[in-house]
Amino acid sequence: MSNGYTNKLIGIIFMSLIITMAGLQCAQASQGVVQIQVNNLVLSCQPNPIILQGRTMVPLRMVAEALGCSVNWQGYDQSAVVSRGNTEIVFKVGAHDAVVNGQKTELDIPACLIQGNTMVPVRFLASQLGRKLDWDGNQQLVIIGGEISKKVRIATEPTYTPFEFTKDGQLQGFDMDIIHAIANQQGMDIDIYYLGFDELIPALREGKADAVISAVAIIEPRKEVVAFSEPYYTEGLCIVTKNNNHVIQKIDDLTGKIIGVEVGSIGNEYANKLKERNNSTNVVCFESPMSMFTQLEIGTLDAVLNFRSSSSYYIKCNEGCNLKVAGLINTNTNQYGIMVRLEDEQLLAQFNSGLQKIQDSGQYDTIYRKWFGNDGVIERE
Length: 381
Hints:
The protein has 381 residues and is an alpha+beta fold. It is built from eleven helices and 26 strands.
C-alpha cells in the first residue's frame, strides 16, 4: 500500500471523526445542555449528558454513585461493573446488550467512551436499579426519583397451625396476620407463596424470595446466612390444667402428678426429668396434642406439658373445653423472626419498624388474642 493512499485514508477517517463530533455537538446544542437530577439534587456532570439516537447518555460513574452504587472499571475488556445490593450490571463499551445479574439484556444504544468516561443510556440504568425516571423537556432535565414500588415476595411453609395454614383454600394464621399488618403499616405490597420448609432459606439466598415468615426460630447457625427481624413471637412450654385446678401453676407443682406429653417433644424431656427426681411422677406419652387434651378433660391426667402456641390455640378454638394455661415455663425455647438476606438492611429496617408500630398501637395484641386468646401473658422478649 503506497504512502499516498495511506495518508488519504487517514485523512478520510480524521474528517469523519470531525464530522461525527460536530454532529454530536450540534445535536447537544440544539437540545440545550441536558442536566441530571438525583434525589432532588442536580448533578454537575463531566462530561455533560448528551442525546444520541433519541436516548440520553450519562456519565455512568457519577450517576451510579449518586444512586448508591459502586462502579468498577475493567480495562482488559473495556467494561464497567455497577453493583448495589443484589443487583449487578455490566456495561461493555460498544456492546448492544448489558449483563444484568448474569442475564443479557438488550440496549437501545451501546455504552460508549467520551473523554475517558463511560456513557450509558440513563433510562436503562434507572430502570435496572428500580428507580423512577421523568423527563422535563422545558428544562432539559432528567429526573431520577425514588424507588419504584414493587411487590415484596414472602415465602412460607403453610402447614404449621396456628402460624400458617390453609383452610377452605385460604392462607391464614398468626404469621399471616402479622405480616399483613406490618405491610399495611409500611405501605408494602406483598405477594405470599408456598415452599417446603427446607426450601425457604435457599430460596431467600438465591433471590427467589425477598423475605420469609414461617415460625422460623432465631438460632445462631441461621444467623450466619440470613438476617432476622426482631422477634415477633416467643415460643415456650406451658402447663395446661382444667379450669378448676388452682394447685398446679409451676413446674415443681407437677411432682407426683400424672402428666400428659407429646412423644419425643421438649415437654416429654421436661417430664422425664421430673420423674427422675421423683419416681411418683407419672409421664403418659401421646401421639398428638388432641389426644392429650381430651384425656385431660376426661380427668385421667392432672396436667399437660406442651408448646404454648398449640395449647393456647386449642383452648381458643374449643371454648367449652374447660381447660386453661395454668403457667408458662421455659419461655425462651424459641423466638420467631422474619428472615431477609444479610445485605437487605433497608428491608429489614422496614419490617422492624412495622413490627414496632403494630406493637405500640395495640394491633399486635389484638392479633395475638385472635389466635391464642388470653393465655395469661403476652410476651415479646
